[in-house]
Structure formats: C-alpha cells, structure tokens
C-alpha cells in the first residue's frame, strides 16, 4: 500500500480536457502522468472561445490564468447582446460589466490556441508529465481489477499493449475509450446527429478596417448573437481586438464530405452566403469578406446520454462523456472542470488508496459529482438552440415578448445571456464542491460500482 500520488495516470487525448487533466494531476503531486495524443502535435482549429468565470476559476487554481496569454490578449466581455438577424435590432442585452464583482472572475473571449498553449506550457513545465504525440488508443483491453491495460499504436509503428493504474478517456466525441467502456459494461451508446452545422470564420483588423460599422464591432467588448429561423451567428473580438471571431449555426444541409476526424471540412463560401442571404447588411458584409478557401464547416454531433462514465480504474471526461451543442459556450469549461474534479478526487483517496477497489470507488464519486451539472447544461444548450431557431408563429411571438421584457437583468430566452442561468453556471466552484462532498459520497453504502 502506498501514496495515491504514486499511481500512474494515463490520459488519452490532449484537447482542452486532457491538457487540463495533465496539469491538474501534476499540481496535486502525482509523479507519473502520460498523455497519448492521436495527432502529431497540438493542433487547434483557428477559432475563438468564450471563457466563462467558472472556467477561469479552474484555470486560476491551476496557475494558468494571471499573466497568461489568454488573459493578456483576450477580451473582457462587457455585454451579451441578442439581435434580430434580418433587421439588426437589439432583442435583449445583458450587461456583463459586473460579472467579476459577482463571481470573482470576469467573462472573457479569446483564441482557442492561446488557451490550449497556456495549458500545454503549464503541463510541459511539470517534470512528471510526458506527452506522446502520434499515438492512437485503439482499445482498452482490461479495466482491472489489477492494472488497466490498453493498446496504442504510433502512426509509424505496430500496436503495443501498455499498463497503467488509472486511465482517463479525454478523447473527445469519437472516444475510443468510451467505446471500450461501453463494450465492457455491455451498454449501448450511439453518436447522434444534431442536424446542425457551423461555419467558423476569423476576420482580421485589416479586412474589417475599411468599414466603420465593422470596426465598431471589432473595437467593442460585446458578444453578439444574431438570430433567425433555424440559424444564428455569434461573434466577438479576440486577440487584442485584432481578430473578429464568427461562428454560425445552421441546418446541416450544405456539409460536403469527406471530413477529417473532427467532422470538419472546407466549406463553400457561396453556400454560406446563401444560407444567411436574408440577414442584415452588416452580416452580409462580414461573410463577403471571408477569403475564398477560408470557410471551415463543422458538423455538430452529440451522443446519447451515458449512464456510466467509469469502469474499474477507467474514467471518461469532457466531450467523451457529455458532448454538448455550443449554445451555452460551456463544452470546454465542463471538460476542464471534469479534469480538475478528477485530480481532486483521486488525490483525496485514503493514504493507502492504491487499492483497486478504492480507485474505482473514487472515480464513481467523480461521476456523481459531475453528472447532474453536466446533464443540466447539455440539456439547456439544446433547449436554447431550439428557442433561438424558432420560425414564425406563436412560439416565436412569445419568445420575442420575453426578449423585450428581459431588458438588462431579467430572464432571457437565450440561456447563455440570461443572468439567472449565468449565476447558476458562473458561481459554481467544482473543486470546492469535490472537497465538500467527497467524504460523504465515498463512504456512502449506496455507491454503485
Ligand atoms: C462551434 C463550437 C463552439 C464552441 N464554443 C465554446 C465556447 O465558447 N466555450 C466552451 O467552453 N466550449 C465551447 N465549445 C465546446 C468545446 O470546444 C468542446 O466541448 C471541448 O473542446 C471538448 O474538449 P475535450 O478535451 O473533451 O475534447 P477534444 O477537444 O475533442 O479533444 C479530444 C482529443 O483527443 C484526441 N483523440 C481522439 N481520439 C483519440 C485516440 N483514439 N487516441 C488518442 N487521442 C485521441 C483528439 O485528437 C483531441 O486532441 C464549442 C464547440 C463548438 C463545436
């Protein structure tokens, strides 16, 4: 029997969740952490990301916020404004200048690469974290009760079987770890079409400069969402107001294969412009500015809800277990919260916690700590999407009435911009929650393994 920090930790995937897990375990003093990543290096799609206060709280705990490039170059958001896509009139505006005072951290937008690089650099500074790029997990071959065994293959090599004490599947929506876990538990789970796709666009200052109405957007601190039937566009400045990040969401009809492993493909500019043909001139102008060949389209997919995230000494996190539509801007936040919770929980194992049964128990506590919150946010993101995309009719009239009544502080049908929902999401402290509830859940006789 030894110290839980002697347990060997293997993380599959170096997306936002996997990187955060590597840093979180290292900060907790774990001595042997390996990250296996399928890609030959860190490769993040050039796009922005909203970094909500609950996410910044975790980054700060991991030493990845103050003075980070994401803090230095990101935008401190002043408001979330919902507009009618066709007329550009404001439907509702939530003031966010008080977010830091309310929740201890601001709401930022930034470049995905800055966030990933910050986490990667933090992980690289930890001597106990080892990255293995170009290595694909093929399957988990044993979940215990002794060590976990798994098969990985380097893109130039033969498959080989490795051992570890705890394996974390941070391998995203197409998770191979999840497939193995479901197989071993005799459970079924399917990837689901959401019927939605999105274009992701970055416009530079140079491209926007000739147009005062666009410069105003780039120089502001507002996150704006233009909505229309079955479609919307969300946009905000990143990179010290040098880049305007635009993400659209529309029915998945133009998507043309073949796609890569992330369901991303080159989009067609003409098709993109025609999807938003009835949107206002500001939107038309921005879409026209996109250089030909720079249109990237993502297919948005989901997964049937999982009843099980852990099996033996194997656990899933992030999109591998609760993929979400992006309408609440909480997918990466949830993955990073999962990562911090996992490290907290495993570090809290009793001093003799290298016992296999104890590890499985602690991982199930992690699942209990995370499942209700993530299920709520996933459902809320889907609901928000349905509300935002309403066509003409009674439901839309009622929604627009609610927008009008929302004003600066009231409940807003766009959950992402609604102060009551922001409160529920932003004030949550996943690490404090784990610290407060771990002992009770761990000791509970009803904990199901
Ligand atoms: C349009 C859009 C906008 C979004 N905006 C926001 C936002 O503003 N804020 C926010 O918080 N979230 C946002 N999200 C959600 C967020 O991007 C994801 O939820 C988050 O990145 C998931 O992180 P992850 O680590 O779980 O998975 P991923 O980021 O998908 O990482 C998985 C990693 O595992 C690797 N991998 C896969 N299979 C294997 C294998 N077999 N072996 C080894 N490695 C493997 C992959 O290469 C990848 O690096 C958005 C999503 C979309 C689609």
UniProtKB/TrEMBL annotation:
GO terms for molecular function: FAD binding; monooxygenase activity. The keyword Phosphoprotein does not apply. Residues 8-349 form the FAD-binding domain. Keywords: FAD, Flavoprotein, Monooxygenase, Oxidoreductase. It holds the Pfam family FAD_binding_3. It comes from the Eukaryota. Belongs to the paxM FAD-dependent monooxygenase family. This is FAD-binding domain-containing protein.
């Amino acid at each position: 029997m030894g110290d839980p920090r002697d347990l060997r930790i293997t993380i599959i995937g170096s997306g936002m969740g996997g990187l955060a897990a590597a840093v979180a375990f290292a900060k907790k003093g774990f001595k042997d952490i390996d990250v296996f990543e399928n890609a030959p290096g860190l490769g993040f799609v050039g796009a922005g990301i909203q970094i909500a206060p609950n996410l910044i709280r975790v980054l700060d705990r991991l030493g990845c916020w103050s003075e980070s490039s994401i803090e230095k170059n990101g935008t401190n958001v002043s408001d979330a404004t919902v507009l009618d896509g066709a007329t550009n009139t404001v439907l509702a505006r939530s003031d966010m200048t008080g977010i830091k005072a309310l929740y201890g951290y601001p709401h930022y937008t930034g470049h995905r690469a800055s966030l990933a690089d910050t986490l990667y650099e933090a992980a690289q500074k930890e001597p106990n974290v080892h990255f293995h790029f170009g290595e694909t997990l093929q399957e988990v071959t044993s979940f215990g009760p002794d060590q976990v065994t798994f098969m990985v293959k380097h893109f130039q090599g033969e498959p080989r079987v490795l051992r570890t004490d705890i394996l974390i599947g941070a391998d995203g929506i197409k998770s191979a770890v999840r497939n193995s876990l479901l197989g071993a538990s005799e459970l079924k789970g399917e990837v689901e079409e959401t019927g939605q796709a999105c274009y992701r666009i970055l416009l530079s200052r140079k491209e926007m400069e000739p147009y005062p109405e666009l410069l105003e957007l780039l120089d502001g601190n507002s996150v704006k969402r233009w909505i229309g039937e079955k479609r919307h566009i969300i946009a905000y400045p990143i990179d010290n107001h040098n880049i305007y990040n635009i993400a659209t969401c529309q029915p998945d009809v133009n998507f043309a294969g073949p796609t890569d492993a992330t369901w991303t493909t080159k989009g067609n500019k003409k098709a993109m412009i025609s999807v938003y043909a009835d949107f206002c001139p500001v939107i038309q102008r921005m879409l026209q500015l996109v250089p030909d060949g720079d249109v990237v389209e993502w297919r948005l997919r989901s997964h049937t809800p999982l009843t099980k995230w852990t099996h033996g000494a194997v656990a899933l996190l992030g999109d591998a277990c609760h993929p979400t539509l992006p309408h609440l801007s909480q997918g990466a936040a949830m993955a990073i919260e999962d990562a911090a919770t996992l490290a907290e929980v495993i570090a809290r194992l009793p001093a003799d916690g290298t016992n296999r049964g104890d590890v499985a128990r602690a991982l199930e506590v992690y699942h209990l700590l995370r499942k209700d919150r993530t299920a709520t946010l996933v459902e809320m993101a889907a609901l928000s999407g349905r509300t935002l995309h309403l066509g003409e009719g009674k439901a839309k009239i009622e929604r627009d009435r609610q927008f009008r009544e929302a004003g600066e502080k009231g409940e807003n049908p766009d959950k992402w911009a609604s102060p009551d929902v922001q409160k529920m999401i932003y004030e949550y402290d996943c690490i404090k929650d784990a610290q407060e509830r771990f002992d009770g859940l761990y000791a509970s006789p009803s904990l199901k393994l």
